[in-house]
Amino acid sequence: MKTKIAVANGDGIGPEIMAAVLKIFEACDVQLDYEFVEMGKSYFDAGHSTGMTEKAKETIENLGILFKGPMETPKGKGVKSINVTARKVWNTYANQRDFRSLNGVNTVFSNAGMQINLTIIRENIEDTYGGIEHMLTNDVAVGRRIITRPGSAQVIRYAFEMARRKGLKKLACGHKANIMKLTDGIFLETFYQIAKDYPEIQASDIIVDDLCMKLVAHPEMFQAIVLTNLQGDIVSDLCAGLVGGLGFAPSANIGDNISIFEAVHGTAPDIAGKGIANPTALLLSGISMLRYMGLTNNAASIENALLYTLEQGVHTGDFGNRNTPSVNTEGFANAIIANLGKHPSNGGVIAHPNFECKTNFDFHPEKNKITVTNPDVNEEIQGVDVFVESALQPGEIAGLAKSKLNDKFELIMISNRGTQVWPTGSVYTELVNQFRIRFERPEGGELTQRDCFEIAAELSDVIKVCSVEMLMLFDGKIGYSLAQGQ
Ligand code: NAD
Fold it and tell me: What NCBIfam families would the database entry show (predicted)?
């Protein structure tokens, strides 16, 4: 029996490359049925604020697999990217991108005789992609970076499982926990906690800037790397560059219920409609999808035909030997079809699964899942940060803050852009019109939430309050950052 999946053609070059890939699937007798869903720019334009029809949402939630072409997010209309929304709403928490050198695709590394084979697992839901941003003053925008223990654990466990399935010897965690001690700190701490369950895999961590340098200089040092969302986004495009560009970068967005397979590249508006786009990235994504669905024989024979075709020097206009004529999208697909059953010179791939195969399609949850890792943690309120708008000098702001102090609080410090400016600071620190005033309980004191909001309310009589943030202790551990210089 054929399994049904949802397919969205996408915008720009999307319909052209999707047609090429589905033609290859058909030639290989892939046992899939397709339900085409209405998603993309024209549905934004038609007034669907999420960029898809209700019917499309229902179909994808019913079928659990979406194979999609790239989609354009209309600019300047205040709408969010449909690609990001789809990943977040359906909790496809792990973004897996496999990068490897392909014969026929020349890069500086292949020319130097170096083969690249590495996998990036990027967290796909959290981080700055929450898109929670506010203007605190006309000059100051603030974005929230959300990193959670459950979200980190989901993607990190996925990465270790993937490494185990592929028989990898090592997994690295890329991070910036030296600067973002709490957010990246949670990610890194979770990484080493979960690593204990996989003793056969060598776990290490690396600061993301060092990682970028090492990936460019010595990509062979790494087998797989797991990262938070934004850092993973940047590092995976860097890796696409190592193996020949975005035209060769597949992407799988894996969730427990719904998974989305797509190319990394966008709609390529500059070449859309010309029939010359390179379908390889979408084809590689489709091959990952076949493996995920347990169609491993199909996956292997299409991959071998693709590798053989590339090795023969067949290429679209965006890569390959400029001295040999390029083929168009359809010509490229036809060449792969003609080569089904052939193997590249290194013997090619065998039918092994890359992903945990999805066999259970009966997954319709009735409630939202909610995870709390330690419900018994002891929480105490240590104080409150009140963010205010002012163009006064730090000493003057301290005077206003002191005028509203009560015996529940002490005035600890004032910072501007994260740098302490009161009680000590430097006159050389340049300021903007937004300060953070930190109040803490005195030794032995106790605070309630109401106390914290009340001091902020009092302060609002003499200065504009932009925002309030609790200072918490969790089992006695400080749950907030200190100011530079504090
Ligand atoms: P892009 O990836 O569409 O194009 C960048 C360059 O790469 C262009 O020169 C393009 O011609 C080339 N290119 C991309 N894919 C190619 C292919 N398969 N074959 C040959 N050449 C290819 O990036 P962009 O121009 O920044 O974005 C265009 C649109 O795509 C934007 O609306 C963006 O929001 C959207 N986008 C969507 C996704 C997605 O659906 N997942 C991802 C990225 C960008």
Answer: PRK09222.1
Rounded distance, CA 156 to CA 194, Å? Answer: 7
Position 353 in a domain = no
Q: How far is the CA of 116 from the centre of ligand 1 (A)?
A: 23
Which ligand 1 atom lies nearest to the CA of residue 13? 18
Q: What is the domain count for the chain?
A: 1
436 part of a folded domain: yes
pLDDT tens readout for residues 392-432: 999 999 999 999 999 999 999 999 999 999 999 999 999 99
3-state secondary structure of 254: strand
**Is residue 285 a contact partner of residue 29, using CB atoms and an 8 Å limit?**
no
Q: How many helices (H) and strands (E) does the chain have?
A: 14, 18
> What is the extent of the structural domain holding 408?
379-478
* 9: its two tokens: 């053609």
230, two tokens: 């934004």
Looking at residues 43-62, what average pLDDT do you find?
Answer: 90
Q: Would you say residue 172 lies in a domain? A: no
At 418, which CATH number?
Answer: 3.30.70.1570
* Residues having CB within 6 Å of any atom of ligand 1: 13, 17, 70-73, 83, 246-247, 262, 265-271, 277-278, 281, 318
Tokens of 65: 């697999």
